């Protein structure tokens, strides 16, 4: 049975009658890299899986120039992406026949081709855009990516904390998610990012904070905090960029259609 048929059947169930021990639609392992980031195996056009960087802050799904040059078709436009530090990335855009994580096929097969991935050890990058229509958990504690269905999502929410977030949708091509964080009494709207290991803040924002910052926390859930955060001051184009130093050992569930995340407790 296809993913869409499974999802449709699951959505039809009333949450009041959800069975215990429900299984998710798809589970894929997350692999920790030597640099502290995470990759997931993805198959392009049914080819053998390759390592893709899990980068929720990337904005769009991307392939390396080496792989993209073999599989991407319909390259008739360019997309300008901006890194958190304002670096401009002009990328050719096209489509692939399919892009899948295990049995889960991404609904949008549009990808960018970025030569910056060549030689990085990754053949592509999977962004938040890949999960715009499904509820997905990034379980860094157990190193799993879980595409949830209604029963498994209901179970997940029982032990997690609800946090609203903001979606920035760039013409339905790129997508990033932001959440308010408190930095020692100063609140900033931060990119939720798994493509960096640390935490970065804008220079002007940093100048307005009390130094040193003893901890940072989700504004909507102050109990979810990180003491002695490794903060770097950079020329960001927005307030702050919260990477894996904060999400490590947590399970982060994102529900983009409903602008909600659910954050599990660390180990």
Give a short overview:
By secondary structure, the chain is mainly beta.
Helix segment tally:
5
The helix-and-strand class reads: mainly beta
Largest sheet composition? 15 strands, mixed
Order of helices and strands: HEEEEHEEEEEEEEHEEEEEHEEEEHEE
Taken from the alpha-carbon principal axes, the silhouette is globular
Taken together, the total number of domains comes to 2
SSE order and pairing:
Layout: H1 3-11, E1 26-32, E2 38-44, E3 50-54, E4 62-64, H2 65-71, E5 73-82, E6 88-95, E7 99-101, E8 104-105, E9 110-114, E10 124-126, E11 135-139, E12 144-147, H3 150-158, E13 161-164, E14 166-170, E15 174-183, E16 186-192, E17 199-202, H4 203-207, E18 215-218, E19 221-227, E20 231-234, E21 240-242, H5 244-247, E22 251-255, E23 260-263
Parallel strand pairs: 3-10, 4-9, 16-21, 17-20
Antiparallel strand pairs: 1-2, 1-12, 2-3, 2-7, 4-10, 5-6, 6-9, 7-8, 11-12, 11-22, 13-23, 14-15, 15-16, 15-18, 17-21, 18-19, 22-23
